[in-house]
């Protein structure tokens, strides 16, 4: 059995996966958009994104897992209504910001503040999307291969190669002749001068 690469803080990873038995993951534009909305919800708080590409039956992501982050809200904050808590519970804050907020160079992290487990954020993303997809297309069962695949990116050269690979994937699969033509990747954000959440 292949060993699963752990997602550790401060490291870069090529995260990728496909639909179980080649199942399509995205049928319509709304599917791509919904996956990206869920990605913002579950992943943005724990990882910086350097490249992404969503294709019909698979996807590729290049992320760096953030260091020194804790959840902004704890289980003790459930006094806010359940729907609101469900939306905000994934938000994180830098540990250094906790120190600044109490005017101290160092502060003990309260016991009720938890450290994120990055692999669970990805699992929640995939589970939430599968639930949406199954309901929309009247299907049931697993949607993604398990476990989701990830490779640690440990050199600047490898980092550049992964970015090129991800953005050229639609060309490789014959969807377009140039990455600029493909709408469901970070290529245009990568080459643009406009502000973006993407790390360039």
Describe the structure.
There is one protein chain. This protein is α+β, with helices and mostly antiparallel strands and 200 residues long. It has a domain at 12-66 and 117-191: Transposase IS200-like (Alpha-Beta Plaits, 2-Layer Sandwich), CATH 3.30.70. The chain is 34% helix and 17% strand. The protein contains 6 helices and 6 strands. The protein has helices at residues 29-42, 82-88, 95-101, 118-136, 156-172, 187-191, and strands at 12-18, 47-54, 58-65, 69-71, 92-94, 149-153. The strands form 2 sheets. A 4-stranded antiparallel β-sheet has the order 2-3-1-6, covered by helices on one side. Strand 2 (47-54) and strand 3 (58-65) form a beta hairpin. The protein is globular. The chain starts with 11 loop residues before the first strand and ends in a 9-residue tail after the last helix. The relative contact order is 0.21.
Looking at the overall shape, the CATH architecture of the domain at 12-66 and 117-191 is 2-Layer Sandwich
The biggest beta sheet is recorded as: 4 strands, antiparallel
Principal-axes shape call: globular
Average pLDDT for all residues: 87
**What fold name goes in the CATH topology slot of the domain at 12-66 and 117-191?**
Alpha-Beta Plaits
Strand content: 15-25%
Please report the total strand number as a whole number.
6
Spans of at least 5 consecutive residues with low confidence:
101-105
The CATH superfamily title of the domain at 12-66 and 117-191? Transposase IS200-like
Strand order of the largest sheet: 2-3-1-6
The CATH first-level class of the domain at 12-66 and 117-191 comes to Alpha Beta
